[in-house]
Amino acid sequence: MTLEYFCEYFNPIYKKEVEKLLSHFCLYSKNKNIDNLIKKTLDLSSGGKRIRAYVCALSYEAKNKQDLAKIKNQLIAIELLHFFALIHDDVMDNSTMRHGKKTINSFGKKENEILKSKNESIIIGDLIFSYSYRLFLKDNKSEESISVFDTLIEEVIFGQTLDLELSQELNYTQDNVISKMLYKTARYTFTRPIQIGILFRNESHNISVLKKAEVFGDSIGMMFQIDDDLLDIFGDTKITNKNTFQDIEGFQATILTSFVFENKKYKKQLTSYLGKTLTEKDKLDLKNIFIESGALNKTTLLKEKYIKTANNSLVGSPEFSVKWKNLITTLSNRKK
User: Which terminus of the chain faces fewer neighbouring Cβ atoms within 10 Å, N or C?
Assistant: First the structure.
C-alpha cells in the first residue's frame, strides 16, 4: 500500500468527517462570522501529507481499503489531532501561511481583527481536539492503543512547551533541541502512530516489537524534523508553499542553530538576526552563516545517521519492511 493509494482512500472520508464535525457546530445558532470561520477551517483542512495516519495504517499492515475501513475512526482521529496542533502552532508562531493558504489566525488588518482571528484559531483548535479524542475512542477495544494515544498527546504538548521555553534563549544545548525534536515531531508523527497500528494488529503481548518500533519511529521522525529545519532555510518556497526562515524570525531553537552556536564568532552573527523580519539580503547572509560555520554539513551527517538507524530497525513482515524502506527513501528526499 503506497501513500498515494492510502490518500486516495483516506482523503475523502477525512474530508467528510471534518465537514460533519464543523457543520454540526454551526447548527447551534446561525451566525455569518462563525460560518465564515468554518469555511476557512474546512479550506485549511484539505492540505497535508497524511503521514501520521499512513504510518499507522502501514504498521497495521493494511493491504486494501477493507483493512483500512476497520480502523478508519482512529486514522481520522490521528489526523484531526495533527490539524488541531497545527492551528494552535500557527497562533504561537504567528504563521500566516499553511499548505499554501492563509492560516486561520492571519485574517484581519486592524489590531482588534487580528486578535479576533487568533482567538478564533484557539477555539476551533479546541473543538477539533475534542472531536479527535472522541473519534479515537469510538469502536476501539484496544485499551493499550488508547494509552499510547494519551502518551502521544502528552508528549506533543511537552514538546511544544519545551519549544516555547527554548525560544528567545541563547544558551540552549543540542540535547535540548534533540529533546524538543523527539517529543514535538518524532514521537507524535511516527513512533506513537506506528505503535498504535501494531497494537491494532494484536501484538500487544510482544514488548520487544513495540520497543523496536520506538527505535525505528524515533529515527525516521528525527530525520523528518531535520529535513523540516533544512527546508526552512534552504527550501524553495514555490515548492514548499511556506515562507522560509520562519524559525529565525520566530527566534526558534533548531538543530541548525544549535550547531552554529558551537562557534562564538558565528553565534554572534546569527543572534543579530534572530526574532527580526528578514530582507532577501539577510536570508542570503544567513545561508552563508549556516554553510561556513559547518552547521549544514553537521546537520546533513546527523540526518544520515538517523536514516541508517531507521533502515537497521525496520518493523513488520518482510513484505512491509520493503514498504518502510521505500517510505524512508521518499521522505529523506522530500522537497516540501
Answer: C
